[in-house]
User: Fold Isochorismate synthase from Salegentibacter echinorum.
Amino acid sequence: MKPELFFEKLENQLLDEKPFVAYSKPGLRERETKAWLQITKQSFNTKDFTESGFVFSPFNAAEKTYLIPTEDAEEITTEYFAEENSEENISEATNFPPVLTNAKTQKQHEELIQRGIESIEKGNFEKVVLSRSEKVETQLKAIEIFKNLLKKYDSAFVYFWYHPETGIWLGATPERLLEVERNKFKTMALAGTQPYKGTIDVHWREKEIDEQQIVTNAIFENLKDKVSGSIKKSELYTSRAGNLLHLKTDIQGALDKSTKLKQLIMALHPTPAVCGLPKEKAKSFILENENYNREFYSGFLGELNIKSEKKRNSNRRNQENQAYASISKKTDLFVNLRCMKLEAGKANLFVGGGITKDSNPTEEWEETVNKTHTIKSVLVK
Ligand SMILES: C=C(O[C@@H]1C=C(C(=O)O)C=C[C@H]1O)C(=O)O
Assistant:
């Protein structure tokens, strides 16, 4: 479908106040942008993750997960090109939109981090991810922001979600929660942040390496009784996400036959990359101390049990090339980071960072400021 028509359909869906999601997966420059437009106005939720569709799930798993079921949706696709070198110079973009949040925020956030560090020192938990939200002005419409995200962030999962009960959310996340096809799964441990300054060949302090190691270890621990055989991991490497760099380990393996998708998702979510370790203690600290509702920030979103067809050509001799079509179901979920909730002329951005015993409150504040730049740079013309 031509991009003009694709975007027009999204706008009409928004005017009709019907749920939809449009998204593009990380990787290829000439990538596909897909959308699921819900046909009815009904509100769907999932509890057991057995349906086929697109899910939008909050940080707090006790709250509702929204679903756009494939059987109640029109699927459309287009090709929308990212610009050459689009991810360059983001931090040098000087015209960020005006901040509407008041100046108390830095002090409040540093105090929150200080409380987190003290709680770690008391032995309550090892790591906690603490976040804040920030409101900024924007003259752009949601669809223009989405186009900017697509153009700018070729290596992220870029999305535009709308549901009458959740409002409009947009983002460009570097973090995959889980990919599952047949009995194979993939996930990642992503943590540690520094600004990108033209090279990915950088030095990482022990603090960041430890922080990332906590995430890798926790994923291994949480998945150990859900897999068959051993879990494999890549070397630790530096990965770029727009104006930032992170430390990353790719993790993959085969699932045990008895493992249900829901069990697997809940074993991972929320990972210590967005919550902490141990999970429940860190989560309670977050819910009691952050003083605002994360809603869908640091939740997850993506394709759930979507049919995928693979055509394979057999190369057997003396046989004409035959196309084999094998159909399987695929799940591909991302952690909702570098995101915003959009309300008439205002964008509410969400940013956080991992706190360990070695964290420094002012540095952590600066890290959240840098994280806001990823989103702020798409809010101006
Ligand atoms: C919590 C966020 O990001 C997460 C926290 C990171 C960190 O603490 O260094 C790095 C990447 C993400 O796993 C965020 O972007 O808001």
Q: What stands out?
A: DSSP finds seven helices and 19 strands in the chain.
